[in-house]
Amino acid sequence: METILKDNLTGANNENLFANTPLKYLTATSIIGDKVHNEKNENLGEIKDVMLNIVTGQIEYFVIEFGGFLGIGVKYFAIPFRLLKVDAPNKSFIFSQTKEALEKAPGFDLEHWPDTNLHLDEVGGYWSFMG
């Protein structure tokens, strides 16, 4: 029997200590709070939450908290899952946008979360030009 199959059936780990190498899985709790930056290493905020589609079982979007100081001027963005790339060595995510683009982009407040990512990612939606 294959070692990985045996491990899955028994719960024992007979593989190396880092069985998730190369990175394939992340827990939601390990993602929340992760930093988000762009290719220029500009800080674009952090992941505030992960939104799951309970019908499809897919991650729909990440909620990114951007800017502000002591809660004033903070913006939240629903960023489609496909637009963030894992930066495993730095335990962070890369979003291919500038700080200026996020400063100008529409966000949402925590009292009015997007019901769905469709309005953000459909043809003609704010993030549809990306990716």
Q: Would you summarize the structure shown here?
A:
With 131 residues, the chain is α+β, with helices and mostly antiparallel strands. The chain is built from 4 helices and 6 strands, in the order ααββββββαα. The termini are far apart.
Give a verbal description of the structure.
The chain is an alpha+beta fold and 131 residues long. It has helices at residues 3-10, 28-31, 99-104, 118-121; strands at residues 35-37, 43-53, 58-66, 75-80, 84-87, 92-95. The longest helix has 8 residues, at 3-10.
Q: Unreliable runs, pLDDT <50, ≥5 residues?
A: none
Number of strands: 6
What structural category arises from helix and sheet content?
alpha+beta
What's the overall average pLDDT, rounded?
Answer: 78
User: What's the total helix number?
Assistant: 4
Using the alpha-carbon principal axes, give the shape. Answer: elongated
* Annotated CATH homologous superfamily: PRC-barrel domain
Oligomer: single chain
Separation of termini?
Answer: 41 Å
How many domains? The number is 1
- The CATH topology turns out to be SH3 type barrels
H/E element order = HHEEEEEEHH
Percentage of residues assigned to helices: 10-25%
Tell me about the largest β-sheet: 6 strands, mixed
What gyration radius follows from the Cα positions, in whole Å? 17 Å
How much strand?
25-35%
| Strand arrangement in the largest pleated sheet | 4-3-2-1-6-5
- Provide the CATH top-level class: Mainly Beta
CATH architecture, by name, is Roll
